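Hi V.,

Quick status before I head out on leave. The structure for the redesign project is tokenized and pasted below; the design run finished overnight.
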């Protein structure tokens, strides 16, 4: 399933050279994260707005925000979580198998975007 998403994104990127870096990050987020993390609605997982707020409360600096979030999503675990109540409610996020570079792009988008 993940390989199919990468292929679709790859084809879109190849055929759309005019995409900006922000557009590519949005495409990565929408194609991978928005399935569970809706902008403001917490259904099967915390909303991305809730996640963004919590992480920005801890990491005001974008570099630190992106580094921590991308590393946590790469290897989710309860001990390093900033959102233990959400884990109790929704369970621990599964490992998604994305590269750290991809997760950094997505985390950067989350930091920069007003949801």
């Amino acid at each position: 399933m993940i390989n199919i998403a990468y292929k679709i994104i790859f084809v879109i990127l190849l055929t759309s050279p005019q995409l900006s870096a922000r557009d590519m990050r949005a495409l990565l987020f929408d194609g991978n994260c928005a399935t569970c993390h809706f902008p403001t609605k917490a259904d099967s997982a915390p909303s991305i707005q809730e996640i963004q707020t919590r992480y920005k409360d801890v990491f005001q600096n974008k570099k630190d925000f992106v580094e921590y979030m991308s590393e946590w999503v790469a290897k989710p675990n309860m001990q390093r979580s900033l959102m233990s109540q959400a884990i109790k409610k929704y369970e621990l996020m599964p490992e998604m198998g994305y590269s750290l570079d991809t997760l950094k792009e997505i985390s950067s988008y989350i930091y920069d975007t007003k949801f």
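Above is the designed sequence. Residues 78 and 87 are 8 Å apart (CA to CA).

G. will cover questions while I'm gone.

Best,
W.
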